[in-house]
Amino acid sequence: MSVKWKKRLIDAAPFEACAVFDVNNDGQLDIVSGEYWYEGPDFTKKHKICDILAIHEYHDDFSDYPMDVDGDGYLDIITGAWWGETLRWRQNPGAAGGEWQTFDIEHIGSIETIRYFDIDGCGVPEIFPNTPGGPQLFYKLIVDENGRGTGKFEKYVIGEQPSGHGLGFGDINGNGRTDILLNGGWLEQPENPLQTPWVFHPEFSLGTASVPIIAHDVTGNGLNDLIVGQAHDYGLDWYEQIVDSTGNRSWLKHEIDPTCSQYHDLYLVDIDLDGEIELVTGKRYRAHNDGDPGAFDPVGIYYFKINGGKFEKHVIDYGPAGEATGCGIYFWIEDLIGNGRPDLVAPGKDGLYLFENLGS
């Protein structure tokens, strides 16, 4: 049976990223998206974060990731986007309330979006911007002797050529270390992840790949395969990792869903609580405004039962724009209702929506 969902419009504000975390330390999860945060548990009380640059029907906010940057016990926001070309953090004002102050981390060029991974096992995720025109890098929060953030970051440039469109994490060669996936190959993590540059293996070409590119053992043979959406074209595919008797690696492409376009963000989670993870994804509505193939097709959000590579599609939402919704550039899955089932928060140019998971 498919999971059933209760859809609710939180706000018509057209921001494309969101996050879920406890903004005001009251013990309740809140929703953050763009210029506003929405107070839990009912998300009806709206608070201003700050003004955000709007340009060409986009907003300069392609990530709203929570991190206590300044060590004051309140979660701040890491952000960045294409037009501002700058990685930034917004300071949570804490108990005083009011608007948030924004600080630049570094001007690094156009940022497609950002993902986060604790690459060195320090307990705090490192910041990995996807900067298609620049080499892959990450930023590490500098902490004090008590492990609290200091508001400063160290930069590590691990690539030597332009990263391209697409970014992900996964152990490709089975040595227990998480590698970095790009649209044209993978960066092999060395024994010390702070050593630069990492060795690049140009083994595949994934097009305008999703962020993230997901590494997952689809077949159950112990090798991580790749699950990739086309962020600005039609297609959702998986690439089977094949290693021959001499150790040579190749990748065999399999279609998952060639009928939909603009699969920009992907998520693996056990959405139906059956003990196996599903793939959750959907259309980023008007990803290049109306410039991408399939821009005027219906929009939707879906989950796929992986089933060893058979990928059975289930609809969360589907229909014409204005009736159905997509899932933006950075959606979020978390149990907001408190019943143990993972809910979905979907931002986008068509508004911010909460999909409550009602179970099968």
TrEMBL record:
Supply the name of the protein.
VCBS repeat-containing protein
Q: Organism, per UniProt?
A: Paenibacillus nasutitermitis
- What InterPro entries has UniProt attached to this entry? Integrin_alpha_N (IPR028994)
Superkingdom of this protein's organism: Bacteria
